[in-house]
Amino acid sequence: MARYLILLAVLALPAAAFDLEGHRGTRGLAPENTLAAFQRALAIGVTTLETDMAVTQDGVLVISHDPYLNPDIVRGPDGGWLAVRGPAIHSLTLEELSRYDIGRLNPASAYAKQFPLQEAVDGQRFPTLSQVFALGAGNAVRFDIETKITPTSGGDTPDPATFAKLVVAAVQQAGVENRVTVQSFDWRTLLAVKKLAPAIPTACLTIESPNEDTVQRQAANGSPWHAGLKLANFGGSLPKLVAAAGCTYWSVFWRNLTPAALAEAHAAGLEVLVWTVNDPRDIARFVDMGVDGLVTDYPDRARKVLGEKGVPIPQ
Fold this sequence. Notes:
- By secondary structure, the protein is an alpha/beta fold.
- The chain contains eleven helices and nine strands.
- Strands 1-2-4-5-6-7-8-9 form an eight-stranded parallel barrel, surrounded by seven helices.
- A hairpin with a 5-residue loop joins β2 (48-55) and β3.
- The chain is globular, with a radius of gyration of 20 Å.
- Mean pLDDT is 94; it is low at 1-15.
């Protein structure tokens, strides 16, 4: 009887809420990493705004996936598309950066052809992180913010410790410590964040693909992306490596996640997110697999799939 009552109690518990993250706001529907994209994501009903951070010359955290001005998305003060890659954001002041328009994709670029449903919103500028936090006033949306830094960034970004210090200060100033996750492929910033503010959760990003591989399983001295932690010291288990880095979340490229790796990550106490999942069939597959959330350019598609499957999403 006692076991029966326990089972009933467990079944009566509400299902865990699914974390629906709008990638760069809603890259598939609005200009990426703009206030327009984040507002569109909020209107659709994401649980989390996923975005990327760079740092200006005068130490302001701004929103950008690229550490430099990308000619696929950036128009100059004269209104024309940049002909070549522009300077590093870290070499520009916020005032200088504000002269550039990121409200539409360059139609001549191959990148633009990937997002035919994206609607232009001319006049969008690089937002500051504080502006994005302000969008969350009055609602319960979370923020998944990525430090865009690599082991070879050099002077194009702040050093990891400085980057982490700026992020923690901005989070604390906005009073959103309980609504923020700091993520990165370069785990040096994550360890620095945990040292400064242990209560702020972190997400270890990973990818293993022919064109990009931050795990580097065959590297004798471990991956330079992993802050000195070596996969070999954890039996080749990536989830155990992520847990050793102090991450709450393992955010893994969607093509890399298997049911066995998901089970191993859950056994290690991690929550697992997959990125960037856009096809409704793949979204459904990962929901059925049991991931804790996903990052998508099309949160409208994901909401439809989640609704059809009866998966709860906080409002």
